[in-house]
Amino acid sequence: MAEKERLNVDDWRYFSKVAGPEVIDGDTVRFEKVQLPFGLELSPQKCPGASPFTIRLCGVDAYESSKRERQTHDQILLGLITKEYLSEVLRVEELFVRTYATDAFGRWLSDLYLGARGNVALVSVSQLLLLHPGLVERDGRSEAASHVLEGSEPFSIRDHDYLQVSFGVLQRAVRTWVRRYVPTSGPRGGAVSRRMLLRDTPRWLTNQLGYHTGAVEFQDWSSVDVRDFRALSRDLSDYLSLSRRA
After folding, report:
1. Which of 53, 55, 116, 118 could lock 93 by a disulfide, CB 3.0 to 4.6 Å apart?
2. Using alpha carbons only, how large is the chain's radius of gyration in Å?
3. How deeply is 142 buried, as exposed, middle or buried, from its count of CB atoms within 10 A (0-12, 13-18, 19+)?
4. Which residues of 107-116 are buried (b: 16+ CB within 10 A; e: fewer)?
């Protein structure tokens, strides 16, 4: 890579169009189809038996969304929130990647961009994740990450409501966590059951968000402006853990 090379989003020779995203974690995405330069296409239809095209986002590091050694429950919940949010964001008209190299797991280190809803410039997914406090960590370990970490913010997130974290994202993440880690019923009927937690999720999640967003009540459930997602995940995890032991 040339010294201090700047990404030219107008130079389409460096980009591949991708489709059919499957979010593995908040920083890892698998695609069903890749449209390479010069009209080449990599997909199960065009290349039977070809391995899925999996990318690792440059510049960010997200928590795993499933249980790993030395990973706490609040970190798993934060990983689930990031995964659900990324899944929602990638439901756009066009997605583009710029790849650099493969990592130790065979994933392509890549920049991923949104190109939909009338955006004049492509929107960096890594920069978008970093705009939400505590959602992911900055990761400058790869040389390619400089494009993300040194770049300026291309937009104000408040000008793009569909890029905000929605209440539905949080609710789906919490419910996935409850189904995995809360027993179906409490011992001798003492603990709150999984069914009760799932039923009451909107109510107690709303109460928690009131503290973490400063909002007295929600008028628009399509987006929530959380001050620190790491702190929110910690409080939600504590609440759920206390409910299990109550």
Report:
1. 116
2. 20
3. middle
4. bbbbbbbbbe
Q: What average pLDDT does the chain have? A: 76
The reply to whether 119 and 235 lie within a common domain is no
**What is the residue type of 59?**
G
User: Model pTM greater than 0.85?
Assistant: no
**134 and 195 belong to one structural domain:** no
What CATH number does residue 94 fall under? Answer: 2.40.50.90
**What digits encode the pLDDT tens for the residues 206-223?**
888 877 776 655 555 566
Ramachandran class of 187: left when φ > 0, alpha when ψ lies in -120 to 50, beta otherwise: beta
Distance CA 132, CA 108 (A): 24
Q: Which amino acid is at 148?
A: V
Nearest to 154, CA basis, from 7, 13, 51, 53: 7
